Amino acid sequence: MSIPSLLQEYIPDLSYYESIYKNLHQNPGLSLQEHLASETAAKELRKLPDFEVRTSIGGTGLIGILKNSSGPTILLRADIDALPVKELTGLPYASTKREVDGADGIEKDVMHACGHDMHIACMLAAAETLSKANSIWKGTLVILFQPNEERGAGAKAMIEDGLYDPERHACPIPDVVLGQHVMPLAAGQVGTRTGISGSAADSFRVTVYGKGGHASQPHMTIDPVFMAANIVVRLQGIISREVNPQDSAVITVGSVVAGMTENIIADEAVLKINVRNFNPETREKVLKSIRRIVKAECDASNATKEPLFEPTSSFPFLVNDDDTTQKLSDTFNDVFGENHNQNCAPLGGSEDFGTLATEAPNKEGGKGVPSCYWLFGGTDPEVIRKAKEAGRMEDVPINHSPLFAPMIQPTLKTGVQALVAGALTFLKS
């Protein structure tokens, strides 16, 4: 039976998974607090015959294992955490939730503004489909739900908690790791790409030190706000004058905090900086240049001590294995036809998905197995068409926007089809 025919026959009525999606969307959990998502995933997997479920991996992470005779082991991954965003979609199932973030003790609005609720619903429906279709494939299927993707630490935490350790959680070692992400592409579309498919991202906190005092006597102080302002402007010179124009990189100073009132010069200023790029050499160069410029600006202002650099998160490059991606693309051509773009633009955002593959033991006695990560659309095609005609693509809500919420169908169906087709590409028929 061909994969398109199998999808037609075995994908269940998705209305049940639509209701799961709405409940997850309405009740999101911040990173490491994804309790409902984790409990829902475990409960649904346990309903399926022959799935072995193991929970509490790296926090709220879990796996479901379906062994179906001898054959390859395929791992499908979905992330489950939400974001500190106040939802403005106006949907009847919109989130109004607020919760205290365990990372800093601050109460925040919470929203599934990146589509991870859609990832969960797609994965659960895909698990049911593959369970029902177990007569036409052989091998081992691992369904993995990962927490804390948004802070770039969930995959690493699962690995460090013994995901693949036979004495701990004993996840079967995958031959291939697969994953997907919903994006503001037209719903029904799927995109693949070989090689580097997502940027690396490095975030850190920089503290610069001055000497506080009264605003009427600036000559008696060393102003950290002035230092910080010059740093913010000067950092953009790295992009315009140090990075090859045919390459790309982004430096964002997302937060600058100093002082409490207008007539007091503060003692210090704190900058939160994020760097993204697609080239390992550029990454190293930009990070070195940031340190050079921050130190130079502090020296120029006669800072009272050296600036402090504190890393807060780091995402690796997302790299799709060429052979794996080509095989997957061939399948997607059969399933999606003209709705499959096999040379989609690289993901500007960053992902820790690849860690599940690069840290997996391989047959050669080292680490690293092939992986592929693809994109699928969640935006009403009519919204995109009108935005293009008006030259206003910036009006289309993107991931992390308070207005981002995928249209449920055909997004859910497309995500399920892609996961099932992806798994069947590598499982033994």
Automatic annotation (TrEMBL):
GO terms for molecular function: hydrolase activity; metal ion binding. Residues 202-298 form the Peptidase M20 dimerisation domain. Belongs to the peptidase M20A family. Belongs to the peptidase M20 family. Transmembrane segments: none annotated. Keywords: Hydrolase, Manganese, Metal-binding. The Mn(2+) ion enhances activity. The keyword Manganese applies. Mn(2+) binds at C114, H116, E150, H181. This is Peptidase M20 dimerisation domain-containing protein. It holds the Pfam family Peptidase_M20. The keyword Magnesium does not apply. It comes from the Eukaryota. It comes from Botryotinia narcissicola. Its cofactor is Mn(2+). InterPro entries: Amidohydrolase, Bact_exopeptidase_dim_dom, Peptidase_M20, Peptidase_M20_dimer.
